Amino acid sequence: MSFQLLINLVMAVIWMFMNDAWTFASFISGYAIGLVIVYFLRAFFPHRFYFLGIMATIKLLFIFLRELVLSTVEVVGQILRPKLNITPGIFAMDIELEKNWEITVLSCLITLTPGTLVVDVSPDNKTLYIHAMDLPDVEKAKKDIKNTFEKAIQEVSRT
Amino acid sequence: MSVNEISSWIVGIIVLIGAILSLVSAVGLVRLPDIYTRSHAATKAATLSVMLVLLGTFLFFAVIEDLVSARILLGIVFVFITAPVGGHLISRAAYHSGVSLWDRSTQDQLHAKKKKHGSS
């Protein structure tokens, strides 16, 4: 992915050289042309077209922001309820991710998800121990949400 | 209404929501029963409230004073990245030094695991 990005940047600089126009607008147009060229030459690279990875990253960022807002609303609702009606607990969840940064991003996402907080990661990186604020109605739904998170992260790291 | 007036309304609402969220998470710190549920309140609501106040400040200076401050944007990003890690570390340290869960907690699957491997 970074190799294709580097090639694209070099193409943009070459475009600026050819036009002898050292402006930001010239860089942008050179970059756009380079993007099209890299797209048509994508069969020669070992990895997929790098712009897909960038799109997946942006999507992950929006998931982050959405979950932050949703979880804040939920926590505020629990706090301001006149009678405290929560059943917390710690449950284990198996994960399929392998690289360290993927696990870190997943735990940050889970920590920002409504009602869950990562307490520990097992030494072999296979299991996350998650403290949930309100266990009975949440655990099943949480697993679904986390499947979408894991999917989104795998989408970013796919080559 | 002029653009400045509308944007100052928006900035006011954003900062007000941030302040109220900050108050609510402080109330949560007092009301919730154990350290784990408290760190739920501290990581989520407090993070969003600080981000909203910073965003309001950024918009105020950008639109009304015509001064784009990249440092505020960097501050938002740093708070966003570090707050969940801080919550995780505090609750992990609490768990490994033996702070017990609330007595109405339903299950504790980490406990069995820890027993099996011996206390670390």
TrEMBL record, chain A:
Annotated GO CC locations: plasma membrane
Keyword Cell membrane set for record: yes
Superkingdom classification of source: Bacteria
Membrane topology: Multi-pass membrane protein
InterPro entries per the UniProt record, alphabetical: Cation_antiport_E
Parts of the chain that traverse the membrane: 21-41, 47-65
Keyword set includes Transmembrane: yes
Record's subcellular location: Cell membrane
Main location: membrane
GO terms for MF: antiporter activity; monoatomic cation transmembrane transporter activity
Keywords: Antiport, Cell membrane, Membrane, Transmembrane, Transmembrane helix, Transport
Similarity-based family: Belongs to the CPA3 antiporters (TC 2.A.63) subunit E family.
Protein name: Na+/H+ antiporter subunit E
Source organism (scientific name): Salibacterium salarium
UniProtKB/TrEMBL annotation, chain B:
Topology with respect to the bilayer: Multi-pass membrane protein
Protein name (record): Na+/H+ antiporter subunit G
Family to which the UniProt record says this protein belongs: Belongs to the CPA3 antiporters (TC 2.A.63) subunit G family.
Annotated localization: Membrane
This protein's UniProt keywords: Antiport, Membrane, Transmembrane, Transmembrane helix, Transport
Principal location class: membrane
Regions crossing the membrane: 6-30, 42-64, 70-90
Originating species: Salibacterium salarium
Sample GO molecular function, one term: sodium:proton antiporter activity
GO cellular component: membrane
A Pfam family recorded for this sequence: PhaG_MnhG_YufB
UniProt keyword Membrane, yes or no: yes
